[in-house]
Amino acid sequence: MKSLAIAILFSFLQLYTFAQCPGGQVTVNVAVATDSWGYESFWDLTPAGAGCGNGTLFSFGNISQIGCSGAGNQTANAGGYGNNMTTYETLGCLTIDNCYDINFVDDWGDGGSTFTVTIMGIDQGPFVGTGTGNVFNFCVTVPFINNVDMATADYEYTKIPLSQVGNIVQDGVISSNGAGNVTGATMNIEVLKGLTSVYNITSSPQNINAGASANYSLTSYTPAATGIYTIIYTSDIIESDEDLADNSISYILEVTDSVYARDNGINDFGGVGIGGGLEGHMGNLFEITNSQFLTSISALIDNSITNISGKNFEVEVYSTDVSGMPIMLLATSESKIINGMNQWYDLKLIPSLNLPSGTYLLAIKQDTNYQQQIGASSSISTSGTCWVSWTNQPWTLAETFGFDIALMIRANLNSIAEIDAILNKSLKIYPNPAQNILNISDLKIGSQIEIINNLGQIVLKKDIFSSEQSIDITSLKCGFYTLKSNSDLRIQTTKFVKN
Q1: Cα 176-180-183 angle, rounded to 5 deg
Q2: pLDDT tens-digit profile of 69-113?
Q3: Radius of gyration of the chain (CA)
Q4: 3-class state of residue 244 by DSSP
Q5: How far, in Å, CA of 307 to CA of 340, rounded?
Q6: What is the separation, in whole angstroms, between the first and last Cα of the chain?
Q7: Of 422 and 190, which is predicted with more confidence?
Q8: Which of 280, 337, 413, 479 could be bridged to 390 by S-S, CB 3.0 to 4.6 A?
Q9: 38 — phi, psi (to 5°)?
Q10: Is the model's pLDDT at 163 over the cut of 80?
């Protein structure tokens, strides 16, 4: 019975494959999606490795003004594709196992076209054109009969304070990418905290026709403790799936005490700036679900495009309207001096800012003296969360300008109870008197300590990155000193003797 079913399905595949094409060929199409300047794109299809204009089988886009030699010329002004639209180009019947190149040329040099090849109506995945041009290769193959893949949106934060976390399970989509219909398609979600499974659920089954998709929504899961959580999605069907590589996806979320982040810690986009000579802002949105104190803001400065060492920068906090657009400046952080490449800076808010529930923008401010270089993750982004503005340009979403990124700007939160606990802690030092090493405990991470002599002179200054700190005081003269701890919450002092 099983052999008969396979034989019938294979006969169906032959009929589907060759109904419109000669034997050994299948139908191939390309969907071309443009940005706001569609007329800047040109492409042709050639045999693999031939190069643009050599053995051209098809030409599309702005043929008359760009062509193969128009990359980066910036001379095109009209024609070809429309703006912000998808055009479906038919390549007709192509020979199975033959390989071809899409030779993409951009007149301006900033890319902007996305190409999706379909074989027998089955999506083969997108190619994104960048720079002045690219070559995208594909080979014509007969699609799988039974094959499904998984898709879901990543959780929009990579780090989130426990006080703000909610449901971390996202809705999912299962698509049938083979030539046949599939039955009993289910989605399973498992959540791991570290290596321990803390949540597992499987959906009700659905039947999915070839080329179609089904939506899945399962019970939510909200973490109850800080830690590293891995959310794993897998799909299954009654038939034997012929490509298991696309049946599982996962993402990682860290539930923290205080850090709120959208970036993944990887500065793979390089320094993002607005442009020299312009005053402006670039920032991320963060949602506060439970009232918290914003104590400081962390930011990574790239400083690799031009040397901006010695420049000062600040971060501003804005309230927003229901769309997320910034509307009112609430606070400005302390100023920091840039002094290295790919370096994180922690900028305090003095005093800390009490944020009621709502959405807020944390934006680096750029003045007219230099171009800011903010680190950015391009491999992770959530639409509608990164905003930019500059002289004569009102607040606009970054993706409007082709930037699908998460800026490396993070919010650091503390609850009222946590702040009260810090305020009530005393600064502890030992030994006292001390000769060579002075040990200090109960420090606030992100604070700064100073040692002041009996003349009121600061003889040592140090930033604090741990609650415990040992300081070498061997070089200090014998006598009485004041140790001062300076944070955004309070100033603490204590006396010690150097002997």
Answers
A1: 65
A2: 999 999 999 999 999 999 999 999 999 999 999 999 999 888 789
A3: 29
A4: helix
A5: 9
A6: 93
A7: 190
A8: 280
A9: -60, -30
A10: yes
